């Protein structure tokens, strides 16, 4: 089975002022990809909903590729590590 | 910070300066995404600080060893983010971890940077007697909001910051209402993203800047190699590290009575005349000897026991010094003198073991003395603090350099600021802490200097855009040190600093307060950049939240309205445009002065700009041609608009490429 890794799904500027609404839209996008709300909930790491729209989720490589093709997705990028300067 | 602000002309004792004009940044909120904060530090006392700004929407999150009353009118916010870190670090055990599962700072890095930018006055502080004075921030009354997204990994004995946690912290900071966001973090070189918007910090920064937040980032510590600067998006203020006019001379006296002044943070007792050795094969031995600092452990113990050891290294990172010190100490040695190129990362050796740095010339003098006498001896005295001239300012060796590897036409770094041997607050857990304060070096320390300055400017000009603040800082920067002496850039050999070392130069806060003209940028300018960088219309529309169509042919990256002109591939002729906005007296007339790069012609039209109550923004054209017949390196010049009070200076960096997309090694 493919291992899953945290990916950042970047959707650009928020399309809605209500953060709850934005987060719900992220869950819907994820559950449409993973097949169920439970899987989406387990996979979701963060919902970015204040300054911009997007979410971080544990995805396999193929799931990341599939979600990248969904309308409204600007980028899907793997989580990476930053260091102190 | 006991010297930083006097050096930059923001001394609290100056009768009238920017600091007083804006009540030290009282209403400005600076957010820090880092390793957290030590709330009890004196740097975060709120004595004399007014009520929390009304627009603040953040909070003080409880957690391990951290309760909401740890916050106050100074430290007004503290949150922590670790979902991404936990998802990626299966081995992490929060119960056993030495880090605090809260906003509390274990390592001290977050505490240090926050106190550099916005720390309150803490008088009579020193590092074991060195660098004494008043520790304070650039904006001592500014408010501080902490977003902990970096965690200590016991297994690695290192700190990691997951980009998904950083992004969440940025998302929250935007919501909470910070004015300035300070990130002393960097992607690991080589850079992953081939475009800015694949860099996670750049993504969050884009939206923060769009909402008027100034995002200040460290330029990275991968210097002096070229093209190592990180956090290079044009909407980010990227900071290089310079030294102060302060050093720590440490007298080393040889048995022939010659005294050499090395550098160290040695605060132990004087080491009287002691045998001095440079480990080398006496000629008839079958044993191994090495005078290389990293290989001292190869020597037989008796070679170094009871002696001071001289060694040479090509390394400039402090690791070589500490490794040499531990090898000598393990063999029973009493001290080590390291001959190296400057690293600008002085750190005391553990247990006050004498470890003094000198350069190769002085190292060779000592080697000559060792070989000229049967019983060479040396005395090492404690370090002292030396301020002002003749200490010169340099760009630190470690400071990452341009050109910008993602988009060479976008000048990076933007600005230089002191980031070497900075005394500021830290976590008492830090093994280098001296009474809750520590001396550190890095672009991590330089970035919050700029964040503090921006906080003061924000208080003075609350309606300016982030680009206007960047422009004001860049176009008014010192190209010399505050005394008018050239700034050198440390590298494989020391050279006069250029824009790829320190951008516009060394930050000059007093001048930045009234820059005269600014190269402002708004959403349209960033869209122009994204179009020129090849983003497609749908991505850009997504990004900015409304339908956007790039012009056809796509715009030139050279027309991005930056306070600099960088042409990495000039062949025949280039024409570009810049637009300046008047932020000085309403009726102003500016005339252009051009100092062209060698062998390059720069023609500016018009040659004067007239501003009045109806004309606040004016554009000008620049035509650049080359007389060079070969592919050259970059040559540097300047383009200055002056009204005889303000000199609005931008760097002009041009590289001729007769043969384009060509790499040579001849």
Commentary on this structure:
The complex is a heterodimer of chains A (85) and B (666). Helix content of chain A is 36%, strand content 33%. Chain A is built from 3 helices and 5 strands. Chain A has a 4-stranded antiparallel sheet. In chain A, β2 and β3 form a beta hairpin. The radius of gyration of chain A is 13 Å and the shape is globular. Chain A starts with a strand and ends with a strand. Chain B is an alpha/beta fold and 666 residues long. Helix content of chain B is 20%, strand content 27%. Chain B has 15 helices and 35 strands. A 7-stranded parallel sheet of chain B has the order 2-5-1-8-10-11-22, with helices on both faces. A 7-stranded mixed sheet of chain B has the order 14-13-19-15-16-17-18, with helices on both faces. The two termini of chain B are 46 Å apart. The chains are: A alpha+beta (85), B alpha/beta (666). β5 of chain A pairs antiparallel with β7 of chain B, so a sheet runs across the interface.
Into which percent range does the helicity of residues of chain B fall?
10-25%
Instruction: Kindly report the oligomeric state of this protein.
Output: heterodimer
Strand content of chain A: 25-35%
Low-pLDDT parts of chain A are none
What would you report as the Rg of chain B, rounded to the nearest angstrom?
Answer: 26 Å
Number of strands of chain A: 5
| Shape by Cα distribution of chain B | globular
Strand order of the largest sheet of chain A: 2-3-1-4
Largest sheet of chain B: 7 strands, parallel
Structural class of chain A: alpha+beta
How far is it from the N-terminal to the C-terminal residue of chain A, by CA? 37 Å
| Model regions low in confidence, pLDDT < 50 over at least 5 residues of chain B | none
The total beta strand count of chain B reads 35
Radius of gyration of chain A using CA atoms only: 13 Å
Most extensive contact: A-B, 30 and 57 residues
* DSSP summary: helix tally of chain B: 15
Q: What percentage of residues of chain A falls in helices of 4 or more residues?
A: 25-40%
Secondary-structure element pattern of chain A, one letter each:
EHHEEHEE
Strand content of chain B: 25-35%
Shape of chain A: globular
